[in-house]
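Because showing beats explaining, we let one protein speak, sequence and backbone structure tokens together, and leave readers to judge.
___
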Amino acid sequence: MATPRDHLNRAPIVEALLDLRVRPAEGGTTPRTKSAVEALRPDYPEVQEISKIEGQLLIDAKSVATTHASTPLGWQLKNAAAGRVVRLAQDGFTFSQLRPYPSWNVFLAEARRLWNPYASAFAPHEVSRLGLRYINRIALPANASLEDWLEAPPPIPPQVPRTVQRFLTQVVVYDEGSSASATITQAMEQAQGAGVTPAVLLDIDVFRHGTWDPTDQQIWETFGKFRGLKNRMFYASLKEAAIKEYE
């Protein structure tokens, strides 16, 4: 495994997501929930409504008919210049930071700032799941061996050709120290176009189910523990040669 670092100057993070699933209040979207959108619009000017669409296909001996109904769930707000997206919906809150990733402190502070108007406007009964997900893109130099880059490359029998064009591995593990589970996914990303190197996507999703009051400060302490677990898994998944590319 690679030696853990406190910081990588060129972290290979493609996207970081902080997610809280909730048990929603009754009533759907209301003027109060719309007010949260308007309060955030100066920083997140691109707004798109999220709806659930349900349809039915009705068939009898003489005809075929379809019906559908659309139920508003919430909104997605985007700040393209800053690479930030926030989802405010009846079933939960998600904050996403695309590259370039600033720092953990900046990322967490923005998530907390956005959560407050969401929780006030949507008034969820409780938080039922916490999730922290990081998607990393590890570029592979020409003629690089997966064994030299990954601690757990896909196993290939000796009689099989060694040139890997595509693979996907996934494990779900449980960490007793943080009472959290984590899904670790590794996948080969094919090079698209001339001059683009192939890469491995290392996707680490740490999560925990439970019951939290929406105002409970322990939620944010738990996310800090998730980050520690995520970092452990990140460095444990990669060889030292892969990490040196991002110092």
About this structure: The longest helix spans residues 218-237. The two ends are 16 Å apart (CA to CA). The chain has two domains: 1-17+136-247, 25-51+70-123. The first strand starts at residue 13 and ends at 23.
